Amino acid sequence: MMLAVTTAEPKKAIPLAACCLDSKMSHPPCAVLNAQELVDYTHDRQKVRTAHSALVIEDDPDISLALQDLLEFEGFRVDCASTCRQAFASITQNTYDVVLLDLGLPDGDGSSILEDLRVSRPALPVIVLTASNRDLGSLPAFARITKPWVRRDLCNILRRALGTTSTPVV
Predict the structure, then answer these.
(1) Is 92 exposed, middle or buried, given 0-12, 13-18 or 19+ CB atoms closer than 10 A?
(2) Listed residue (107, 114, 100) closest to 64, CA to CA
């Protein structure tokens, strides 16, 4: 194993691989980072990657896991709920930047969650993911995607919902 020795604290050697976290580091090369600076840099990079949070409300475990994987890959912190009851509890306890909502849930209709969010958090973008073509009536969602979704389309809608203009994932 190769070690990087910092000039500030030569007795504190750190694994060289830990210095090479990102080939586009905005920090100086490892040789001038002490151990604490490297920890701080890594922590800052982690915060950038998890800047947004999402709640996935989906009762199908396979779909929920697929959405969680996609969102985490895109840098989101993700919570999942499979029932209306779990969703309401998560919404009460946490703050989210976006919600992905299935309408058909085992203990109720997902539109009740949408209705509650329109009143309690009107600026929160809700993306409805559904297998049906059912009319939402007067309950506006930020977007509606019919299952199965196209990954690129979902990522583009997420970026629009968050006001970001990142390059789409293929």
Answers:
(1) exposed
(2) 100
Q: Under 8 Å CB-to-CB from 148, ≥6 apart: which residues?
A: none
Pairing between β-strand 98-102 and β-strand 52-57 as defined by DSSP bridges: parallel
Q: Does the predicted model carry a pTM greater than 0.70?
A: no
Measured between alpha carbons, how far is residue 12 from residues 17, 33, 59 in Å?
Answer: 15, 11, 49
**1-34 per-position pLDDT tens digit:** 444 444 444 444 444 444 444 434 444 444 455 6
Cβ neighbors of 24 (< 8 A, separation 6 or more) are: none
Domain 51-162: CATH superfamily, name plus number:
Response regulator (3.40.50.2300)
Count CB neighbours of 82 within 10 A.
18
Q: Residues of the chain whose pLDDT is less than 70?
A: 1-50, 135-136, 138, 165-170
- Report d(CA 119, CA 34) in Å as an integer: 50
pLDDT at 38: 60
What are the boundaries of each domain within the chain? 3-48, 51-162
Residues 6+ apart with CB under 8 A from 135: none
